[in-house]
């Protein structure tokens, strides 16, 4: 109770009016999008008609939820510069790979979801495992966004947390049920600009209060963790390894390759935005366009977390207590770093913009999870295994009912997130369970035509089980890795186990005929199936490979000059 009172934001009528105005826009977009929904493809994939710049901003905004805002600011408060690895090592390369290499297969094969791609490549065994695990993961991650969204309403209005969570769920549910993916995507574009408008002033005002960049550096050096927080490599505190080589290996292989590629290239939450475009070239550009703002997001997310840890008395005290005793638990947590900073540095008016930005972030994240869930549930589970060959309107109704069911389920999973002092620990654990083995199966199956359907589902199950086993070893203190090191190791283990099991099972089972692999395996796919016929006539700024090359040069430069 005392913590809730100390964190209560001193919002004025102006702040409440700005938040209310934002909600009016959100619901209005849902109502407008509803007019365009006449079929299941309209509801689930926006009729495959949206331009690349819209889907590119939505692609990055869909990820700009709890992971990005609260999770990365919490990481910034706890670790400092090593958090940049989640962007410059753990996101951009995988996003570019998705656009250049993998999107032609997704879009060219005309699949409606990532699990559907799995069904065509490996059959129903791998498909069912993937669809079920994806559905569970989306409910859990939607719960994270919902919990944090409810926390904001709790802080703003003083409502009990459970009331705040339910109200937050109803707001998101209203516009997704009305307008489907189009409502989610157009709201995500609005939310991107609202989030930037909220976090940029917070960063600038916070830096000014800390005495500028030089003043902040001095405070950080004098704080627990010291100067290591101003160096991104070797990132020992983040990885949990005291050995520098093992730390770098864990970050590059565990985070930069397995977790990153597993998340960005196989996560239907992101891929769904690209599938909503009008052509292969536009689908390829979607993650590449998203990579440009993604590079600079840490400057307005990680830096405020670092400022909060040295400028806000409650956060500085909490960090000192955690440094003295890693098992310390109090009413404060790293997840509150951004809220405390907003309370301390933003004046009325700007506070309303900040609150709208946080609400936008969590709504974008939750809406992305729910819109991906309802597609997979309707197409990949209900239509495939429960009710086949029904009229299109039937599946549209199922999608809307699935949206309601997923939101109710997320309310119950929301409170799991409250048990973690740093929300990124929870999220990286989930990604190591579900995304790491899926990426191994995908990448092997896409480039090795001999891989069999039996190997597809066996590898997925074995990889997921091995990640859970590593997690349990760390939970029961058989092994001891601090930070997010346990997730990096679990992801790496899941990837290797999946590959090994898939290769072994392939030796004893029958592959699919080569004729059935066109559009699914690189060597069996004609070039015309994975390229846009109009690609050569596009101007340079619309050519995916060139845009990806420029982005890669920029992110390498950021790693060298900042890291």
Automatic annotation (TrEMBL):
<feature type="transmembrane region" description="Helical">
    <location>
        <begin position="12"/>
        <end position="33"/>
    </location>
</feature>
<feature type="transmembrane region" description="Helical">
    <location>
        <begin position="295"/>
        <end position="312"/>
    </location>
</feature>
<feature type="transmembrane region" description="Helical">
    <location>
        <begin position="53"/>
        <end position="74"/>
    </location>
</feature>
<dbReference type="Pfam" id="PF00474">
    <property type="entry name" value="SSF"/>
</dbReference>
<keyword id="KW-1133">Transmembrane helix</keyword>
<comment type="similarity">
    <text>Belongs to the sodium:solute symporter (SSF) (TC 2.A.21) family.</text>
</comment>
<keyword id="KW-0812">Transmembrane</keyword>
<feature type="transmembrane region" description="Helical">
    <location>
        <begin position="545"/>
        <end position="562"/>
    </location>
</feature>
<feature type="transmembrane region" description="Helical">
    <location>
        <begin position="159"/>
        <end position="178"/>
    </location>
</feature>
<feature type="transmembrane region" description="Helical">
    <location>
        <begin position="190"/>
        <end position="208"/>
    </location>
</feature>
<keyword id="KW-0472">Membrane</keyword>
<feature type="transmembrane region" description="Helical">
    <location>
        <begin position="398"/>
        <end position="420"/>
    </location>
</feature>
<feature type="transmembrane region" description="Helical">
    <location>
        <begin position="426"/>
        <end position="447"/>
    </location>
</feature>
<dbReference type="InterPro" id="IPR001734">
    <property type="entry name" value="Na/solute_symporter"/>
</dbReference>
<feature type="transmembrane region" description="Helical">
    <location>
        <begin position="350"/>
        <end position="377"/>
    </location>
</feature>
<feature type="transmembrane region" description="Helical">
    <location>
        <begin position="485"/>
        <end position="505"/>
    </location>
</feature>
<feature type="transmembrane region" description="Helical">
    <location>
        <begin position="245"/>
        <end position="264"/>
    </location>
</feature>
<feature type="transmembrane region" description="Helical">
    <location>
        <begin position="128"/>
        <end position="153"/>
    </location>
</feature>
<protein>
    <submittedName>
        <fullName>Sodium:solute symporter family protein</fullName>
    </submittedName>
</protein>
<feature type="transmembrane region" description="Helical">
    <location>
        <begin position="86"/>
        <end position="107"/>
    </location>
</feature>
<dbReference type="InterPro" id="IPR038377">
    <property type="entry name" value="Na/Glc_symporter_sf"/>
</dbReference>
<feature type="transmembrane region" description="Helical">
    <location>
        <begin position="454"/>
        <end position="473"/>
    </location>
</feature>
């Amino acid at each position: 109770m005392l913590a809730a009172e100390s964190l209560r934001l001193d919002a004025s009528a102006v702040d409440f009016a700005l938040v209310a105005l934002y909600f009016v826009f959100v619901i209005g977009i849902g109502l407008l999008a509803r007019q365009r929904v006449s079929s299941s493809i309209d509801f689930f994939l926006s009729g495959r008609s949206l331009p690349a710049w819209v889907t590119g901003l939505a692609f990055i905004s869909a990820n700009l939820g709890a992971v990005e805002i609260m999770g990365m600011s919490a990481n910034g408060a706890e670790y400092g510069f090593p958090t940049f690895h989640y962007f410059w090592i753990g996101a951009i390369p995988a996003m570019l790979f998705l656009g250049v290499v993998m999107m032609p297969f997704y879009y060219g094969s005309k699949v409606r979801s990532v699990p559907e791609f799995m069904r065509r490549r490996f059959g129903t065994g791998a498909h069912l495992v993937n669809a079920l695990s994806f559905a569970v993961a989306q409910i859990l991650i939607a719960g994270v966004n919902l919990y944090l969204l409810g926390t904001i309403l709790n802080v703003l209005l003083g409502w009990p947390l459970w009331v705040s969570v339910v109200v937050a769920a109803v707001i998101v549910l209203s516009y997704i049920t009305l307008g489907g993916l189009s409502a989610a995507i157009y709201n995500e574009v609005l939310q991107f600009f609202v989030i930037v408008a909220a976090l940029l002033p917070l960063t600038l005002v916070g830096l000014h209060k800390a005495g500028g960049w030089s003043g902040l550096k001095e405070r950080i050096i004098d704080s627990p963790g010291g100067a290591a927080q101003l160096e991104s490599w070797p990132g020992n505190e983040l990885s949990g390894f005291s050995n520098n080589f093992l730390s770098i290996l864990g970050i590059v292989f565990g985070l930069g390759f397995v977790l990153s590629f597993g998340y960005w290239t196989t996560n239907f939450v992101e891929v769904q935005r690209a599938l909503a475009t009008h052509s292969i070239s536009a689908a390829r550009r979607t993650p590449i366009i998203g990579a440009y703002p993604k590079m600079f997001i840490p400057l307005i997310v990680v830096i405020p977390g670092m400022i909060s840890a040295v400028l806000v008395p409650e956060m500085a005290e909490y960090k000192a207590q955690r440094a003295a005793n890693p098992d310390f638990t109090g009413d404060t947590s790293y997840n509150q770093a951004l809220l405390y900073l907003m309370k301390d540095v933003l004046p009325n008016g700007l506070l309303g913009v900040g609150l709208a930005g946080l609400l936008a972030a969590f709504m974008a994240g939750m809406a992305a999870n729910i819109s991906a869930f309802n597609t997979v549930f309707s197409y990949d589970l209900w239509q495939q295994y429960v009710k086949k060959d029904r009229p299109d309107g039937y599946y549209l109704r199922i999608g809307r009912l699935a949206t309601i069911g997923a939101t109710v389920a997320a309310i119950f999973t929301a409170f799991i997130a409250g048990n973690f002092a740093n929300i990124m620990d929870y999220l990286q654990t989930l990604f190591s369970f579900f995304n790491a083995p899926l990426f191994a199966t995908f990448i092997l199956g896409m480039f090795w035509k001999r891989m069999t359907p039996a190997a597809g589902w066996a590898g997925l199950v074995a990889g997921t089980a091995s990640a859970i086993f590593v997690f349990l070893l760390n939970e029961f203190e058989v092994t001891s890795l601090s930070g997010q090191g346990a997730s990096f190791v679990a992801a790496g283990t899941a990837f290797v186990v999946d590959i090994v099991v898939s290769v072994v099972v392939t030796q004893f089972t029958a592959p699919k005929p080569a004729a059935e692999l066109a559009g699914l395996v690189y060597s069996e796919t004609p070039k015309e199936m994975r390229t846009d016929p109009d690609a050569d006539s596009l101007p340079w700024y619309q050519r995916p490979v060139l845009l990806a090359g420029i982005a890669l040069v920029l992110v390498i430069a950021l790693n060298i000059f900042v890291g």
